[in-house]
Amino acid sequence: MNHALLIIGNTLRTNPPLRQYLNRVYTAHFHEEGDAFFVARNDTKLLFFLEELIERYETLTIATLDDGASLIGKVLCTLTQDALVLQSQVLAPSKSLHVAPGSYTLKHNEKHINVLQISLCGTIGPIFSPSIQEHSTFHLVGLDTQSCHLLLEPLAQTFDVSLHVSPWVEGLARVEAKAQKYGQLEHFMKSTLSLFGGKFFLGNEPMSHIVKHLGANKKRLTCAESCTGGLIASLLTKVPGASRCIHGTLVTYSNGIKRAWLGVDEGILNTYGAVSEACVKDMLEGALKASKSHFALATSGIAGPDGGSEQKPVGTVFVGVGDNQGAHVIERLLLHGDRESIQTQSAYHAFRILLQTYPQEFLTK
Asked: Given CA atoms 336, 338, 342, 345 in this order, what sign does their dihedral have?
């Protein structure tokens, strides 16, 4: 199914929190991002643009703020030769298939059109348009992207399944699988699990999977973050149920706080520096001791754009995982991109190392 999102008006286009919320609602319904388009509310070519999109896509979702809903309704009525009527406290075309507060859907030339009326306070109505039926999303851990393609493509061809592999970071790949007309998605998934047991888990993203399994196993995790500045904890605590397994984390940006809060040895800081394997090891141990958790994640690095050296250039990051039995794994990474990109990559490498180090806790056998 090809589908698209049309956003009406500059206010909605330039409001990042509302845009991100809309994208989450849209992706949760369709299981993937669609093509996205923007048009000003007063664009004189709006009607012709709508006609073009409806011709191109099977499903079109139109998002507009409350003050633009009436205009969109009139344009759609012009297109479909209909009239607006009040239904369920919503002014919608009379031939609408579904109407609910903040949303209605209709068909035109066998294409589905869903209008979402969004308020600035963040209310988004339901999406009624049909979504992809034969679809599954899973992750592979510990394999590079090329290996994922090489190993999965023969299976996909055998069962007539299309694939989209998108790595969060190298070694942690998200795979979307969709059955084609005569595809056998269930058999593909069983064969994939058989091939990748111990490196496989179902789900749209790693954070929910980690939180789910920690909660189910009654295990706790904490973080000691320097260069990521609390990003790892933020990503995890966005997941409902995180309070069952994450009781607290520490953002220890300065060396003084690393010493005071985590007990990082001053000799290590003076000899090896904060961006070092030895420092991250002490951070892991300090976080585990302070929180009484079962697992800890730690990061320390140079996110840039300044602060690098010949020995430790910008993008040098040490990421580690440890447990309350004294085991730990720490990797030195050389990442590329701007400051935010390096921080984000560091966070996802932390998830990757956790999953890869403790497959018995997190991965399907």
From this structure: negative
Q: Which residues of 272-299 are buried (b: 16+ CB within 10 A; e: fewer)?
A: eebbbbbbbbbbbbbbbebbebbbbbbb
Instruction: Decide: helix, strand or coil at residue 322.
Output: strand
42: which residues sit within 8 A by CB, 6+ positions away?
none
Residue-wise pLDDT tens for the chain (365 aa)? 689 999 998 888 888 889 999 999 999 898 888 899 999 988 889 999 999 999 999 999 999 998 888 999 999 999 999 999 998 888 999 999 999 999 999 999 999 999 999 988 878 989 999 886 678 999 999 999 999 999 999 999 999 999 999 999 999 999 999 888 777 999 999 999 999 989 999 999 999 999 999 999 999 999 999 999 999 999 999 999 999 999 999 999 999 999 999 999 999 999 999 999 999 999 999 999 999 999 999 999 999 999 999 999 999 999 999 999 999 999 999 999 999 999 999 999 999 999 999 999 999 76
Q: How far apart are CA 277 and CA 114, in angstroms?
A: 52
**Cβ distance 147 to 92 under 8 Å?**
no
**What is the C-alpha to C-alpha distance for residues 242 and 238, in angstroms, rounded to an integer?**
8
How far apart, in whole angstroms, are the C-alpha atoms of residue 302 and residue 299? 10
- DSSP symbols for 141-202: ES--HHHHHHHHHHHHHHTTEEEEEEEEETTEEEEEEEE-TT--HHHHHHHHHHHHTTSEEE
Domains and CATH numbers, the chain: 3-118 (3.40.980.10), 135-204 (3.30.70.240), 207-362 (3.90.950.20)
Decide if 252 contacts 269 (C-beta within 8 A).
no
Distance CA 323, CA 311 (A): 30
Query: Measured between alpha carbons, how far is 93 from 9 in angstroms, rounded to an integer?
Result: 21
Contact 310, 363 (CB under 8 A): no
Picking from 360, 32, 73, 80, the residue whose alpha carbon sits closest to that of residue 197 is 360
Comparing C-alpha atoms, which of 103, 128, 169, 102 is closest to residue 352? 169
